[in-house]
Amino acid sequence: MLDAFSVVAIVAGLVFFLAGTVGLLRFPDAYTRLHALTKADNLGVALVVIGLLPQMDGLLAALKLVLVWLLVMLSSAAVSQLIARSVRRREPCE
Amino acid sequence: MLSAGAFIVLMVALGLVRVARGPGRAERMMAAQLLGTGAIGALLLFGAASGDGAMFDVALTLALLSAFASIAFVKFALRQDHQVPDDDAVEGAR
After folding, report:
1. Distance in Å from the first CA to the final CA of chain A
2. How far apart are CA B42 and CA A13, in angstroms?
């Protein structure tokens, strides 16, 4: 049931989740932390979805997974821009 | 797949350390964003492992809703700072 493609893609997604969490904990300032977070958001969920796509039995379930992925991409892009802008606004210009 | 989902949950729990330790509100919000994304990924993996289609619906709803928390945070932070309002902040105050 679990073919090699799914395992490879899901493990790659897990690596990006790990990298995002470590970056969020270890990076020095807000911008680099945001950079690490968006890797976990986009690539982590994207690779997990790609890995799960061959396991779906129906077209509707596969479309639902793709819809989840598109929503995550859209909201993560918008939210990272908004958070970066609020951080930038709070710091005085140098 | 269950272990992959458990790994994501563990990563998110580690990311919550940033909520406790984070110097600013933006860092705490980033950890909340990671929580939302990680929950989506874990729900997808658990749903595929258990064959329960309802979990995909929960992940879809979470993908829709998790963006709103961060957007509300940014609107609130911009309004509270009393700096030069841009059109977004004016729109939020309206």
Report:
1. 57
2. 11
Question: Residues of A with CB below 8 A from B78's CB?
Answer: 86, 89
Q: Between B11, B29, B63, which is nearest A71 by CB?
A: B63
Q: Are A71 and B60 a contacting pair at CB < 8 A?
A: yes
Average model confidence (pLDDT) across chain A: 84
Structure tokens at B47: 């749903």
Condensed to tens digits (0 to 9), the pLDDT of residues B58-94 reads 888 888 888 888 788 778 877 776 555 555 555 555 5
Task: State the Rg of chain A over Cα.
Answer: 16
ipTM given for this complex? 0.82
Determine the Cα–Cα distance for residues A38 and B11; give it in Å rounded to an integer.
15
